[in-house]
Amino acid sequence: MNLLIMGLPGAGKGTQAAKIVEEFGVAHISTGDMFRAAMANQTEMGVLAKSYIDKGELVPDEVTNGIVKERLAQADIKEKGFLLDGYPRTIEQAHALDEILTDLDLVLDGVINIDVDPNSLLERLSGRIIHKKTGETFHKVFNPPADYNEEDYYQREDDKPETVKRRLDVNIAQGAPIIEHYRSQNLVYDIRGNQEIGDVFKDIEKVLMNLK
User: Fold this and answer.
1) Among the listed residues 102, 103, 105, 108, the one whose alpha carbon sits nearest the alpha carbon of residue 87
2) Binding residue per annotation — 128?
């Protein structure tokens, strides 16, 4: 079974990816892991990627695509199938992935799209606060401190609502054409992400049992 998993930051993609891998035994391919492995093994694309990273530059698409192709060409993929997590990030990468799969004689079986209302994600992601003296982390809504006093707590720049909203807006804009690309191929399965973690997985499990 060959799958993609998609969802906005905070939608629980990582948690569900781990459950899918454990339950269905597919190879979990996340962009970060793939880059680290390619660089550690000094593959042709790994060496090229490192040359950009060492200069503090963004790795170009053709190198990222090359690393994905190197990974998907490995023997365990034909055996177990894969779950791609964090790629494709752009519509150009989605088109490149189509070509990679054709070249390697692989077929994509489904795209699991964990769908969560962006407003609830904004609340979830921008609620983190840190106690100035102890460094303890709390959440304004889901895990508020008993003695909350605004002066004693601070928020990291990354957690501030305006920063989170920008990040979500960028992800929505980038993700929409990718979802549509796969929707046009009848590959997208929308999963309601605003549920308990176990219930989200039950819905994913139903989809995947039918795909097997």
Assistant:
1) 108
2) yes
* pTM of the full structure: 0.87
Omega within 30 of 0 (cis) for the link into 9: no
- Residue 71 annotated as catalytic: no
CA 12 distance to own-chain centroid: 9
Task: Give me the residue label for tokens 């190197």.
Answer: 70
Q: What is the DSSP string of 130-142?
A: EETTT--EEETTT
80 flagged as catalytic: no
CATH topology of domain 2-116+175-210: Rossmann fold (3.40.50)
183 annotated ligand binder = no
Residues 6+ apart with CB under 8 A from 72: 29, 82, 100, 101, 104, 106
166 annotated among ligand-binding-site residues:
no
155 is annotated as contributing to ligand binding: no
Q: Which amino acid is at 13?
A: K
| From 156, 183, 192, 202, the catalytic residue | 156
* Marked catalytic residue, from 50, 69, 80, 89: 89
Q: What is the pLDDT of residues 73-112, one digit of tens each?
A: 999 999 999 999 999 999 999 999 999 999 999 999 999 9
